[in-house]
Design goal:
This protein is mostly helical. It has one domain. Helix content is 76%, strand content 0%. Helix 1 packs antiparallel against helix 2.
Length: 112
């Protein structure tokens, strides 16, 4: 009896693997942007809120509250820089995905 094996799932070629890796990279940078941007906004607004509460005098004149507000506000800046870095990497990855698409379809790099 002869047994014939039929391949039901095509083996992905190198182009598919590259495109998959680029899309995965794009998702990671987008997640990084979401997390760092959200934390930057929350931290900055919290720091401003605590600072205003301390400035107006609605809270007790506790040094820890003022320090917490300052730390939250200062923490927002590096998180904002990280979010900006993620935006740059998202743009770079998107360009690489488009370039790979053009190469797969026989277009020149200058046409993309």
């Amino acid at each position: 009896m002869n047994a014939t094996a039929i391949i039901t799932k095509a083996i992905p070629d190198e182009d598919d693997l590259i495109e998959t890796a680029l899309k995965q990279s794009l998702r990671r940078w987008t997640a990084g942007l979401l997390v760092s941007g959200s934390l930057a906004a929350i931290s900055g607004l919290t720091g401003l809120g605590i600072g205003l509460i301390s400035l107006i005098g609605l809270a007790n004149a506790d040094a820890r509250l003022g320090e917490t507000g300052t730390v939250c506000f200062v923490l927002a800046f590096p998180l904002s820089f990280l979010a900006a870095h993620c935006v740059d990497k998202i743009d770079e990855t998107d360009k690489r995905i488009r370039l790979e698409y053009c190469r797969r379809h026989g277009m020149k790099d200058s046409d993309c």
